[in-house]
Amino acid sequence: MRTPLMKRKANSTAHGDRFSDERIEAVWKKATVVAGVDPSKRRKDSCGAWIEFEKYGHTIDNGTGWEVDHIIPVSKGGGDEISNLQPLQWQNNRSKGNDSPASNFCIIKAR
């Protein structure tokens, strides 16, 4: 008998686990560095939304919290390879959902 797929929580590995600190930092480094801003603290996601390293996992509306996104969703065969992960402001990540290829998912943009 086949086991049904478990529903993963947002911001988790393909197996539903928490990302390691090392993986979180590696994904953070993929965000866009902005001149004049400390890149260890603030960067921009691919939508142009500000994200803050210390706000990883924070989900306050229109805030700078962010999550690790699977570029190719797990539901479509994507894995936890660093090349398939990107940092996204949490609302942008939730808007993207399982879309692949994703388009028009940026709801929080440059401010």
Write up what this structure looks like.
Keywords: Endonuclease, Hydrolase, Nuclease. Pfam families: HNH (PF01844). This is HNH endonuclease. With 111 residues, the chain is α+β, with helices and mostly antiparallel strands. The protein has a domain of 76 residues. 14% of the residues lie in helices and 14% in strands. The protein is built from 2 helices and 4 strands. The strands form 2 sheets. It has a two-stranded antiparallel sheet with strand order 1-2. Strand 1 and strand 2 form a beta hairpin. The longest helix is centred in the first third of the chain and has 8 residues. It is globular, with a radius of gyration of 14 Å. The N terminus is likely disordered.
Itemize the secondary structure elements and their pairings:
Layout: H1 21-28, E1 42-44, E2 50-52, E3 66-70, E4 85-89, H2 90-96
Antiparallel strand pairs: 1-2, 3-4
Task: Provide a compact summary of the structure.
With 111 residues, this protein is of the alpha+beta class. The protein is 14% helix and 14% strand. The strands form two sheets. It has a two-stranded antiparallel sheet with strand order 1-2.
